[in-house]
Design goal:
The chain is of the alpha/beta class and 169 residues long. The chain has a single domain (13-148), classed as Rossmann fold (3-Layer(aba) Sandwich). Helix content is 36%, strand content 14%. The chain has helices spanning 24-34, 56-64, 85-102, 120-137, 141-144, and strands at 16-21, 43-48, 69-74, 110-114. It has a 4-stranded parallel sheet, sandwiched between helices. β1 (16-21), α1 and β2 (43-48) form a beta-alpha-beta unit. The radius of gyration is 19 Å and the shape is globular. The N and C termini lie far apart (54 Å).
């Protein structure tokens, strides 16, 4: 087994995707940057209008795109700028965790953190917590799977033209 795929070797650096709202999540990240709080550089950020817009498809797609772990940063419970958006997002996240367990990827690769915009340390701790958790779990099993071969040109359908329309016969 190569050292890249062995979670016990220090060379494995997990790739994380973090979804956060434009209110508390973004402000907490901005505060962490302004205060020069260190957190792992292995996180890709996806800004959302509200974590209530979190869709299970977005979370699962992040794993399909190669993320080893995914987390969501939301406003504190009871203090969402969109009233109960974070609670709706959390319900969807719990469903996504069940799906990840069912398909064998592991629901522990997905988490949600609640914090206000002034909590720079909590923001950094969320990134550290997820990085350490994923280091222990190892790489995303989907990354280890072989990529499907591209289709042969003779197997492709007829040419698709403007806006996906097929030519008239």
């Amino acid at each position: 087994m190569s050292s890249e795929h062995n979670p016990s070797t220090p060379s494995f650096e997990p790739e994380l995707t973090a979804f956060y709202c434009i209110y508390c999540g973004y402000m907490a990240g901005d505060t962490a940057g302004a205060l020069q709080v260190d957190y792992p550089p292995n996180v890709k950020f996806v800004r959302m209008p509200c974590t209530g817009k979190t869709d299970i498809r977005y979370l699962l797609e992040a794993f399909e795109q190669g993320a080893d772990g995914v987390y969501v940063v939301a406003c504190p419970i009871g203090n969402c700028h969109h009233v109960r958006g974070n609670e709706r997002g959390y319900a969807r996240l719990k469903r996504a965790k069940k799906l990840l367990d069912e398909i064998g990827l592991g629901g522990e690769r997905l988490e949600m953190f609640f914090m206000s915009g002034s909590q720079a340390q909590a923001y950094a701790n969320a990134a550290r917590t997820m990085t350490e958790r994923i280091r222990k779990l190892g790489p995303n099993p989907l990354r280890l799977m072989p990529k499907p071969a591209p289709p042969h040109p003779e197997e492709e359908d007829e040419e698709i033209t403007f806006r996906g329309r097929r030519p008239k016969r």
